[in-house]
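Not sure how to ask, but would you mind making up any protein sequence you like and the tokens describing how it folds?
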Amino acid sequence: MRARIDCRAPRVDARAVSARAEAAGKRALLRAGERVRVRSIAIAPRRSGRLIASARVDSEAGKVTVRYGAAYAAIQHEHTEFHHPNGGRAKYLRDAIEDPAAAQEILHIVSEELRAAL
């Protein structure tokens, strides 16, 4: 008895794959940025709500930026001696990024997007 197995790979349009991967990367960046924004909001100081409301995710040229637009955002972020009786703390953005669980979430987001695209 003989069996023949044909294992030729199907043709792949490299440009189409590249375009799908690039689009997936952009989606992953935006999702990751949004996740960091949500994490930082959870630990940002709360007084009037303006600081939290000013949180934004921007994307341009393959980069994502999470920022707080409130005029006093940098002051609140950097001054660890400030007390926040309504909750939250200084270094809210840095801590949201440097948390090991956040890194795992970001890796998961990237792998999900790439897996779905390819």
Notes: The mean pLDDT is 90. Strands lie at 55-60, 63-68. Residues 27 and 113 are 7 Å apart (CA to CA). DSSP finds five helices and two strands in the chain.
